[in-house]
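task queued by scheduler; priority normal; single chain, no ligands, no partner chains; default sampling; output format set to structure tokens
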Amino acid sequence: MRIRHHPDDALMLAYAAGSLGAGHRLLLDVHLEGCAACRQRMAQLNALGGVMLDELPPAELSPHALERVLARIDAGPGSLADAPRTSTVVGEKPWLPVAWPAAMSGCEVGPWRWMGPGMYWNRVVVPDAPQAKVFMLRIGAGRMLPQHTHSQSELTQVLWGAFDDGRSEFRAGDFDETDGSVRHQPTVQPNGDCICLASVEGTLRFDGWLARLMGASIGM
């Protein structure tokens, strides 16, 4: 599988710095899982970040910081109010023609739901971040999503098939980032379905009222 579209350096740096939202981070996790080139880039960015951190002047800790950390360690993990909660998949995952990404193993994935002729979606609940707007879209051969732009940003990872939105063709393994500067209408190639994982920050701004109603009902 030849991957042609990758996250840009700004997004990779945000990932390395831990400043991405949970949904966007999941999309990067899934892409990195299947892209050796981006894993190498990430290793280089992490190494660069470590050097930059070493060169920063020492920062003074807040008063009693050490005492609080030691007290929490002594109390044991069961008493930590902010300890991460484990999350398990509820029921069986919906059909997918390829192996499920390991990065999604802790996510709750809903069943495929109809949203239009030849088009289905489901919700992906990210562990400890139920507010993250992550979806899977399964669009039939030759079908197209309504034309739209974005109030903030949308990341898309192609899991199966291919689509073209006028800017380029995106195939399995490819990654796309769009924002308010992009107005597009993704159209699936005629030789088969396309399945994508998408993370939305803000909302999608559909051109037509019916598409806007559909997007609002889904939570996009």
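post-processing summary
- Residues 1-220 form a domain with the Jelly Rolls fold (CATH 2.60.120.10).
- The chain has one domain: 1-220.
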